[in-house]
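User: My instructor asked us to take a sequence, write out its structure as tokens, and then describe one feature of it. I'm not sure where to start. Here is the sequence I was given:
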Amino acid sequence: MTIDVLPRSRRGVYGIAVTSELTGIGPQTLRLYERRGLLTPARTSGGTRRYSDDDLTRLARIAQLMEEGVNVAGIQRILALESENAELASRLEGSDLGAAGA
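Assistant: Let's start with the prediction itself. The structure tokens for your sequence are:
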């Protein structure tokens, strides 16, 4: 029995056709987003893309930004800043917990 180290939300379980159906984003567009660096789905040993729940959430955010008229370069920057912000907030929360326990 193997134990997955990735949390369930990060495990790539959806193929490109299912992801396309769940998000309403066509397979070619999903491939384009990957080429442009907007997301990086997991790959099987055979090279098949596998999208996770986190990828689906990211795709929803990408679609929202596209609807607002943001171009791909802007989306890349926004996603990077949001990720950095989340990481900093997590660190801050961790330091607050450490200070509270002292």
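For the description part of your assignment, you could build on this observation: Residues 4 and 71 are 36 Å apart (CA to CA). Try explaining in your own words what that tells you about the chain.
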